[in-house]
Amino acid sequence: MVGEQEQQESRLTVVLALAANFGIALAKTVAAVITGSASMASEAGHSFADTANEVLLLTALRRSRRPADRRHPFGHGTERYIWSLLVAVCIFGMGALFAFVQGAQAILSGETERKSALVGYLVLAVSAVLESVSWRQAFRQTRQEARADGQSILAFLRSTDDPTTKSVLFEDSAALIGLALAAAGLGLHQATGSAVWDGVASLLIGVVLTIAAFLLGRTNLDLLIGRQAQPRILEGVKRVVTAAPEVEALVDLMTMTVGTGEVLVCARLDFRDDLGAADVERACVRLSEELRANHPEVYEVFLEPVPRDDPGLRRRVIERYGRPPYHWAAGER
After folding, report:
1. What is the domain partition of the chain in residue ranges?
2. What's the CATH code, domain 4-225?
3. What are the CB-based long-range contacts (under 8 Å, 24+) for 264-267?
4. Which residues contact 302 (CB under 8 A, 6 or more apart)?
5. pTM beyond 0.90
6. What is the pLDDT of residues 298-323, one digit of tens each?
7. pLDDT, tens only, 181-208
8. I want to staple 44 with a disulfide (CB 3.0 to 4.6 A). Which of 20, 29, 138, 203 is the partner?
9. Which positions fall inside the Cation efflux protein transmembrane domain (predicted)?
């Protein structure tokens, strides 16, 4: 399970992003009113959406750590994915759609008036500094966790089961890109006197936010459906159970992520025929303890003794994975 230090680190990342986004949103709103810039208004809407998102992420961190109970025997870990999925919806619904509307209005208005952009530039500069502070914290935590898992940052972002830091990193990355687009739109509007450039910048901000929302939404949807454990955990489980002297074959292995740093392990094992019931029971207890000791992410372990030559079981495994069971695939007896 996720350690307390990692929980505190994630909470710090979200709180820092919350404070930065709220201050930036207020400043951008004032600048949008003064300059009349569509891209600045889009950025203000984006920052308000990000502020709401951080509140959702803090809620996810708090509620997902509730202990298991009678109605939820596997805990509340997947609740983090639901709240994080709402973050993706908010990024699109509150940020991207607002940016698209602002951009379309600016392009269709045909406005040619030149407006003072000094306030806009100052707000964008300050916003970039604050967003960079938040982005650096999220990036630092992501890099630290990727190194702990022995992965590159990109590989870690694809495989991580913690959407919190990933959400902040994606939000802040989209925000920094949006700031650059807003500055470009403001500058071109000032240089040409045409609001079309400002509108185009706003539309591009909407595209960036849509991409960020899609990537986050896909990640959380995958986790909510029930993604298997990371390859290193799968290989570790295989090594432990197949090395046990009581086990002749690993017939089937199913894992599912039930929360951040929480993995459910279900394995069907063919035990030696000369073992008694008590021997099998003791072996199951020992293997469960070894799996938890080797992999702190293992939340619950279910081991089922089965005959490896059962045709019905073999057929179900092939239907699920498209290949024979483990001991058949390895060429074992």
Report:
1. 4-225, 231-329
2. 1.20.1510.10
3. 264/74, 264/299, 264/300, 264/302, 265/229, 265/237, 265/291, 265/298, 265/300, 265/301, 265/302, 266/301, 266/302, 266/304, 267/237, 267/241, 267/301, 267/302, 267/303, 267/304
4. 264, 265, 266, 267
5. no
6. 989 999 999 888 888 888 888 887 77
7. 988 988 888 888 777 888 899 899 999 9
8. 29
9. 14-225
Place of tokens 């399970």: 1
